[in-house]
């Protein structure tokens, strides 16, 4: 090697060292860059994984929330359907008597309009007896089971069977009451009909024999009275004979009517159109009413019943004749209306005979159907008793009220055919 070569050797060594250091530095930078990229990729994966996990959790929570809301809606809808479908009345009240729930069946029974707000229905006097039972439950905190209550201001007098239970919260604190009530009016009517049938049957058995004995004696008196010739008697005795004949005939009519009342009801059931029956009965008394300057009208919707046409015509003939006689006794021109309506829900026909006469005092309305009770001077007191008997044996009922014209209203209710 020459001297110049030895001179360049240190310089070459320095260059080589610098190159080596540069290469090492580049390699370190590349390694650091690779590590940074790797850590970046790893950090990005963890973030994506965490984000995906959070998204999945949120999705599950929303799904559970929708499921819970759906179950709550379904539960509320089911509760509403149960309350709406109950055939019994449901009344839920708070401690202060505020009405929280009144279902459709309860509204119908209590005659509360569907559109009426519950806030306006607070302890109405019409339902006073019902709230008295609820108050009793709230005061004592104990259930009241199957109690009969009459609501006289509702309809024609509503009988309800009531069960009231106290309402407690989760901590056992009383905060209201639940009242279930059902309509017992038809049951009470059936009980009354059965009682009347038994009473009439017993009365008929006890008195029929006595009536026959009276009839035989009256027949003998009437027979002897007819044998007497008034023309062959002195003038002073003729009025006595006429009086004997007249009284014997009157008593004979009373006994005949009483036997008709006491006789067991026997009739053949067939379909009877009530309009035809009422029209025929009205025609029988229309001439008499017109002679007094009055009228007899038949209006409304009439149904059909299963019964005896002859006996039913006798019912309405008696009612119409009583109305005409009452008006004549009060010296007013009779204005008599036979009105009818059909209650499809209960399956009954209601026929009212209304007049413009003096009416019947409320104190006497419970007694007018008793045998021999009469307010007429020449009445026998058996006409309305016989009417009630016929109606009862047709599974109906008859009641007395006041007519729109201020007179009497005799109301007959009977089940419709079919």
Describe what you observe in this structure:
This protein is of the alpha+beta class and 418 residues long. The protein folds into four domains: 20-55; 85-183, 2-Layer Sandwich (Beta-Lactamase); 187-264, Helix Hairpins, CATH 1.10.287; 268-418, Histidine kinase-like ATPase, C-terminal domain (Heat Shock Protein 90, 2-Layer Sandwich), CATH 3.30.565. It is built from eight helices and twelve strands. The chain has helices at 3-85, 104-110, 128-140, 185-227, 238-262, 274-291, 309-329, 383-392; strands at residues 89-94, 99-102, 144-151, 158-168, 174-183, 270-273, 295-300, 304-307, 335-343, 348-354, 397-402, 408-415. The strands form three sheets. The protein has a five-stranded antiparallel β-sheet with strand order 2-1-5-4-3, with helices on both faces. The protein has a five-stranded mixed β-sheet with strand order 7-9-10-12-11, covered by helices on one side. Strands 6-8 form a two-stranded antiparallel sheet. The N and C termini lie far apart (142 Å).
């Amino acid at each position: 090697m020459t001297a110049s070569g030895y001179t360049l050797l240190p310089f070459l060594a320095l260059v080589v060292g610098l190159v080596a250091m540069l290469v090492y530095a580049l390699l370190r930078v590349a390694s650091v860059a690779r590590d940074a990229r790797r850590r970046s990729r790893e950090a990005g994966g963890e973030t994506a994984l965490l984000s995906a996990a959070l998204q999945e959790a949120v999705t599950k929570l929303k799904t559970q929330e929708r499921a819970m809301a759906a179950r709550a809606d379904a539960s509320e809808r089911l509760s509403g359907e149960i309350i709406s479908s109950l055939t019994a009345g449901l009344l839920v009240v708070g401690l202060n008597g505020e009405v929280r729930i009144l279902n459709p069946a309860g509204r119908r029974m209590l005659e509360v309009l569907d559109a009426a707000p519950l806030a306006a229905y607070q302890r109405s006097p019409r339902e006073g007896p019902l709230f008295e039972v609820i108050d009793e439950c709230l005061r004592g905190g104990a259930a009241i089971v199957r109690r009969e209550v009459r609501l006289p201001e509702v309809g024609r007098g509503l009988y309800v069977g009531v069960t009231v239970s106290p309402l407690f919260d989760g901590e056992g604190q009383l905060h209201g009451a639940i009242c279930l009530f059902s309509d017992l009016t038809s049951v009470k009517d059936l009980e009354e009909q059965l009682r009347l049938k038994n009473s009439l049957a017993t009365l008929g058995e006890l008195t029929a024999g006595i009536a026959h004995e009276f009839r035989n004696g009256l027949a003998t008196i009437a027979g002897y009275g007819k044998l007497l010739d008034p023309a062959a008697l002195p003038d002073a005795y003729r009025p006595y004979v006429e009086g004997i004949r007249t009284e014997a005939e009157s008593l004979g009519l009373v006994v005949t009517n009483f036997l008709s009342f006491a006789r067991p009801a026997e009739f053949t059931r067939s379909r009877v159109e009530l309009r035809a029956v009422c029209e025929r009965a009205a025609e029988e008394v229309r001439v008499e009413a017109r002679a007094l300057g009055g009228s007899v009208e038949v209006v409304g919707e009439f149904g059909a019943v299963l019964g005896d046409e002859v006996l039913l015509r006798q019912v309405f003939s008696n009612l119409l004749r009583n109305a005409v006689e009452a008006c004549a006794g009060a010296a007013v021109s009779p204005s008599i209306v036979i009105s009818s309506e059909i209650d499809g829900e209960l399956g009954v026909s209601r026929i009212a005979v209304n007049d413009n006469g003096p009416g019947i005092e409320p104190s006497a309305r419970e007694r007018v159907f008793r045998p021999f009770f009469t307010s007429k001077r020449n009445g026998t007191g058996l006409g309305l008793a016989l009417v009630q008997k016929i109606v009862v044996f047709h599974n109906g009922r008859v009641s007395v009220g006041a007519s729109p014209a201020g007179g009497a209203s005799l109301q007959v209710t009977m089940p419709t055919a079919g």
